[in-house]
Amino acid sequence: MKASGADEWAxxxxxxxxxxxxxxxxxxxxxxxxxxNIDGNPHAVKTPFVLxxxxxxxDKADDLAGALHEFVLIERFVSINEWQGVxxxxxxxxxxxxxxxxxxxxxxxxxxxxxxxxxxxxxRQRLRQTxxxxxxxxxxxxxxxxxxxxxxxxxLRLRLEAAGLDCDLHDALGLxxxxxxxxLILFPRRVTDQRxxxxxxxxxxxxxxxxxxGQRCELKRIVATQKDASGRVVAGYAEVELVxxxxxxxxKGFVFPGVPQPLEEGRRYTLDPCPNxxxxxxxxxxxxxxxxGEGNTLYELLADPSRLDHDTSATPGQGRFLAGIYAxxxxxxxxxxxxxxxxxxxxxxxxxxxxxxxxxxxxxxxGTAFALFARLQGAMQAGxxxxxxxxxxxxxxTDVLLRNVLDVRQKLRELRDADPARFAQFFxxxxxxxxVYRVAPHEPPDGAVHLEKDAQKEKGExxxxxxxxxxxxxxxxxxxxxxxxxxxxxxxxxxxDHGLCDCLVLDEASQMNLPEAAMAALPLxxxxxxxxxxxxxxxxxxxKHDWDRELRRTFQQYRVYDSLFDTLRSLKPPMIQxxxxxxxxxxxxxxxRREVYRHDGINYHSRRTEVLPERxxxxxxxxxxxxxxxxxxxxxxxxxxxxxxEFEQALIEPILRTLSDAQGYGLDAEDxxxxxxxxxxxxxxxxxxxxxxxxxxxxxxLAVRSAIDTVERFQGGERTVILVSATxxxxxxxxxxxxxxxxxxxLTVALSRxxxxxxxxxxxxxxxxxxxxEETFANSLLWKNLLQRTCxxxxxEGERGGRRVAVWGGKSGPVG
Length: 816
Fold this sequence. Notes:
Blueprint: H1 6-10, H2 17-37, H3 64-87, H4 91-96, E1 101-105, H5 112-134, H6 141-147, E2 155-160, H7 169-175, E3 183-188, H8 208-212, E4 215-227, E5 233-243, E6 268-273, H9 278-292, H10 297-303, H11 316-330, H12 339-346, E7 353-357, H13 364-382, E8 386-391, H14 395-418, H15 420-426, E9 436-439, E10 449-451, H16 464-469, E11 473-477, H17 480-491, E12 501-506, H18 514-520, E13 524-534, H19 553-557, H20 564-570, E14 575-577, E15 580-581, H21 586-595, E16 605-606, H22 620-625, E17 632-637, H23 646-660, E18 673-676, H24 680-689, E19 694-696, E20 703-706, E21 708-709, H25 711-714, E22 719-725, H26 731-741, H27 744-751, E23 754-763, H28 764-767, H29 774-790, E24 793-800, E25 803-810
Parallel strand pairs: 7-13, 7-14, 8-11, 8-12, 9-10, 9-11, 12-13, 15-16, 17-23, 18-21, 18-22, 22-23
Antiparallel strand pairs: 1-2, 1-6, 2-5, 3-4, 3-6, 4-5, 17-25, 19-20, 24-25
């Protein structure tokens, strides 16, 4: 994902830090000028945008820490630039982009005490204005106390509006990207310049600069209060909780303070995503510490690869754990593990860094959990403390890994109950009581000890760091941001060099960038072990700047925009590679092995041969697409589209209807059917057309999830059937934006979500694309080979909607 201002950055390749900062000044001055004059408004808020100060680290621009520092700042600059660029569009247009909702405040919709509190806030605000106009300077202490008020905790119901939109309320809610729990900006739809005399004030649309400092709130839920006879939403409200927002120059442009304003009866407001970047600010604090020379074990391994060790030996207790696995397998009380997983569990107990490549569906989280308990037993037998931290980029992925840890602990208990004598011979009984913590959870699984954020605790309560240090052995599940908060909660600004962690597992590392990995490694001891689990053949971190075209020497030498997994892979540390998938059909695995994973020397395979049940659809075209003996099917059509393809939508409609209808296959939107699209425009159109593929909230009646989404949302999930709608077919557009659709990592993720059937619908242009650009040409080969080498059996050919369409099928190859 790249920023809209990438072309402007391209003109400044090769500049020094001073010139880079000068460019930032000019760019932001231009934005201020545009913002000040939008809609003919000469009275915009002039609060200056806080510029990052790069001069302090100019002497470190040539090392890895300096490159990381620049990376964090540039990503933030491009991100806020993109946010402001979108806010130049009128709110009604932003609704169609999924960026904004429009709502009004009505006292009749509020709880009586909420309405009364808002009126009191209005009174105090007017009193402050009166004092300010009457006085010549600062308010007295008594006056300040009389005027003091806070929006914190005010729970409001805002009536959703569709007047002035080019769609109705139902479509607006279907298009929106705002979700429960999002931090938003609540701002009046139209404002006036209060500095002018009353007779000269003219209403105007707020500028992006004004929105930066708007009232913050948290979206609790959206509720549909009225639907028409066809089930379309015609009335509803957004429930939001007002919150304080702190920010300022100290954040260097990452966090902006919200200026609270009481709500006015009958006034229309906009709800927009909050641009504050707390995560980026925490990353900045970490990389600035690295620039100062603060200690960080993971960073030191990156900066000095000579410290890497390839010792394959195991600790005695770890070896005994693996022997126990063999013993229970021999007794047919435990399933088998592939050779690579046995190495993972029973070897490499002493290396400072271990890389684990887990292709789709190979059970890397499950294998990691066994590897952790093996290392715990090694520490127990040696009499060493061992606190393992397991970390993923997102809360959802962290909870998946945590569930696997809990499942393996339960599995060990079952083995103990099944054969106590054998268990006592090989396993340490203390493993069964190792506490498992989850720091700052969203929806953690049962069985873990929940530790709320230190910032939310009462004064005098034990800090999370203290709680974790109490047991000698434990597992701690936490995100990088949760780690930062834990270190700051205990030690304030002194977040470096406090050894809490003996083993750090960084999972989904192909999506994690280097600054957040360094953040996650803050508590790692100097002699601790890092286990990095991921797969560079799947989706990389999302970045805003067009780093692939960044030619400055710093970023050619230090590719700090690459994922943690890619960066470590280039250092050639000890590495384990899994090969057997327990998810995908053997035919899909065979294709991915030949076209993708053979480049890594991985014999990727699957033993799964389950297919769809036999059905007899009346439509010959649909029947051909859903023939169960062909797990891989490609539908080739003729069209010329870019981000929206109405013909393709019409083409797949009977397929989706047959798969989702109870009379057909009855696949649901949770586990049964997934539709992958590359663009939000096509996603919105398909969601409108297929409401049966949505998961609805029982309270609000609104769709909270959909089986139709972009490939990023499907990574980590699986479905019985996956249908990929390529959408793009215009040759010129493909050549211009081919790195998006043709990115082999996207297709790899999309293909590997399917358990029994993969259907790919694309224009013949995609399969016949030729480009003189070496990377585009290489990437397009994956699509071509899917049609020309795998799906080679013609199942159906004819016309649909006046255009020629062909259906090609592929069967399974040999199982590895």
